[in-house]
Predict the structure.
Amino acid sequence: MEAAAQWLAGYDEQLARTAANAKAADENLRRVSGSAASPRGEVSVRVGPSGALEAIELTPAARALEAEQLARLILATAQQAQRSIGAQVVEIMTEYLGDGAALDFVKRNTPAAAGVEEGPDDEDDYFANPRVVVR
């Protein structure tokens, strides 16, 4: 009978720890935010914990862009901020979940980490917005 009481007490402790960890993870995830700016600074965005846009700022230099170029630049900048959020979410959840299937699920359902190449650049975009490398 005492073994069952000990098991139940241990189970109650485990549930309390799990609930506390879930609450802490929720609080940490609510504070996550991301921001990004386009390479030449025409566009800046801020996204909230869910990755939804909270703010977009355009500098006067954005007026020099064609509408289609500006739209692509806003989208790319927002995606960069969302990848930042994804990296933060994975970092937070690693602390609570550790390696395993649950963390793999989180990783599969968040934007790829910033700096990870997602494929070759569009050739037309390359010539319309050439990158400048300074050494």
